[in-house]
Amino acid sequence: MMTGFRLNLSPLKEPLGFVKLVEWLTAIFAFGCCGGYSGKNIISLFCGDGTNETLTANFHYPFRLSQVPLIEGNATVCNHSVTTTHMVGDSASSVEFFVGIAIVCFLYSMVALLVYLGYMHVYKDSDFGPIFDFLITAILVFLWLVSSSAWAKGLQNVKDATDTGGISATLEVCKGSNITCEVTEFASLRTLNISVVFGYLNMFVWASNAWFVYKETRWHSQKFSSQPGPGRQQVPAPI
């Protein structure tokens, strides 16, 4: 068996290679839309004496909100003494899991494309390559589902913690009857929403690719080779 590198771009014209290229691109968008995110919300405090004060909530990837201070040190807000106060919540585990799966898929897609374009003759001449490819693809479909669902829930937690209701519940001073707290400037969460969409899109793309990889395995070929052809009748064994 010849195992040398032979560049052949024809697999990109077939579903097996083309879908793998799409997987590579969608993985980039998935982790790129949330990996470097940072945002800022402006909170306005309307004091009972007619004065207004503002606070700033800066949050960023990986969204360990419990480490984000709203008020640092002892301060006076609306004539009330307030101690150090942090935001509530931690979505680091879900978003880091999501980004980790996206990076793994990005790297695996690159390796698979290298095999398809340079070692397809080896890939098709062995049982190990297609079967290994199919099993890894099936596992990654499941991991995309789990990680995307976890990050979607984590993102909702971030939204709840940074909106008016979440901030008002966090700041003790906002619980007073004569003080109103409101988030007047919201950070754009568009890219984070897009990352969730790309997460589920990746799941569907990898699931479709699993079928094309399965067709390369001996399980698929044995299934069709065992079926009798049209017009072929089974001959009864002689007695």
TrEMBL record:
Which UniProt keywords are present, listed alphabetically? Answer: Glycoprotein, Membrane, Transmembrane, Transmembrane helix
Q: What is its main location?
A: membrane
Which residues belong to any copy of the MARVEL domain? 11-218
Question: Is Transmembrane one of the keywords UniProt gives this record?
Answer: yes
Q: Tell me what topology the record assigns in the membrane.
A: Multi-pass membrane protein
Q: Report TM segments.
A: 21-39, 97-119, 131-152, 194-214
List GO terms (cellular component aspect): synaptic vesicle membrane
Q: Indicate where this protein resides in the cell.
A: Membrane
Lineage: superkingdom: Eukaryota
UniProt-listed Pfam families? MARVEL
Which PROSITE patterns does UniProt cross-reference here?
Answer: MARVEL
Tell me the PANTHER family matching this sequence. Answer: SYNAPTOPHYSIN, SYNAPTOPHYSIN-LIKE 1
Say which family it is in. Answer: Belongs to the synaptophysin/synaptobrevin family.
- What protein is this chain from? Synaptophysin-like 1
Please give the organism. Sander lucioperca (Pike-perch)
Q: Which gene encodes it?
A: sypl1
